[in-house]
Design a protein that fits this description.
10 helices, Pantothenate synthetase, 295 residues, Rossmann fold, Pantoate--beta-alanine Ligase, Chain: A,domain 2, alpha/beta, binds adenosine monophosphate, four-stranded antiparallel beta sheet
Length: 295
């Protein structure tokens, strides 16, 4: 496994692999890798070559957010990549990605103006810009993103379509702890009490799925039931909990097409996100536990 710090090193490797006719899969991450990231890497092994980028992208953090405290453990990340068949880690410094006079951005409208985009106004501009750069640097055939960040996945798919990137974007299911909490690098911030309180996210999701499967189609009723459940836990504060069309991200009142039920919830000072997609026609949501974390 190679570890590249510069864009030039990555390009040299990619050139050699391309000359050999090999296919390339990219898994973009911010590091502090866990089983969620690992599932993306495993899926990416359907390519001949797997590239993982590890870069805590300053552009996607707001001024009051956790850029400086974001957890990092490169030694452990390298181990996980090595054990899972990664061929190349791209781990640039910020200056390698952004020259001091950097001034070109990928700025999407509409899809970025809902959900996380409302509370993190600069976030998706940073995400779209860095992912575009990674696509240009690595030129992958396929790129892998988690459904945990459902809005991000929808945005990247739209960006690829709108800007004609020659890459297939593949969404991978949410990986959870045994008790249901979605795996996240930010779970590290939680103390013991907050870790217990954080279960209201996944529990409210189970409640929401049950209500939908029983036939409820009024989104206000569903949102209220889920919010009431979450707000009964004193350590948490809801940032948003909304039901949107899973492609357009527009809020829906009557549930008719596949919908995304998405939330961001502060547990103490830690902001966690979670979601599920519900397909009305099939009266079915995607399975809650993946085979990897079924006990
Ligand atoms: P991050 O390092 O948090 O930027 O995440 C990198 C990628 O891993 C993103 O595409 C995330 O959606 C994905 N990811 C993070 N946590 C999970 C999880 N629990 N299950 C599946 N994918 C995840």
């Amino acid at each position: 496994m190679k570890i590249a710090k510069t864009i030039e090193e990555v390009r040299e490797c990619i050139k050699e692999w391309r000359n050999e006719g090999l296919s390339i899969g990219l898994v973009p991450t911010m590091g502090y890798l866990h089983e969620g990231h690992q599932s993306l890497v495993k899926r990416a092994c359907e390519n001949d070559i797997v590239v993982v980028s590890i870069f805590v992208n300053p552009m996607q953090f707001g001024p009051q957010e956790d850029l400086s405290s974001y957890p990092r453990d490169l030694a452990s990340d390298i181990r996980l990549c090595e054990e899972n068949g990664v061929d190349l880690i791209f781990n640039p410094q910020s200056g390698e990605m952004y020259e001091s006079d950097f001034c070109s951005y990928v700025d999407m409208s509409v899809l970025t103006e809902e959900l996380c985009g409302l509370s993190r106004p600069e976030h998706f501009r940073g995400v779209c810009t860095v992912v575009s750069k990674l696509f240009n640097i690595v030129t992958p055939d396929r790129a892998y993103f988690g459904e945990k960040d459902a809005q991000q996945l929808a945005i990247i798919k739209r960006m690829v379509r709108d800007l004609n990137f020659n890459v297939e974007v593949i969404g991978c299911p949410i990986i959870r702890e045994k008790d249901g909490l979605a795996k996240s690098s930010r779970n590290k911030y939680l103390n013991e009490e907050e870790r217990k309180a954080a279960l209201v996210l996944s529990e409210s999701i189970q409640l929401g799925k049950k209500i939908l499967e029983e036939g409820e189609r009024d989104s206000a009723v569903l949102v209220k039931a889920m919010k009431d459940y979450i707000e009964a836990e004193p350590l948490v504060r809801i940032d948003y909990l909304k039901i949107v069309d899973s492609v357009s991200m527009h809020q829906v009142e009557k549930l008719e097409s596949p919908v995304l039920v998405a939330m961001a919830v502060f547990v103490g000072k830690t902001r966690l996100i979670d979601n599920f997609i519900f397909s009305i026609s099939e009266n079915r949501s995607d399975s809650f536990y993946t085979s990897e974390n079924r006990s």
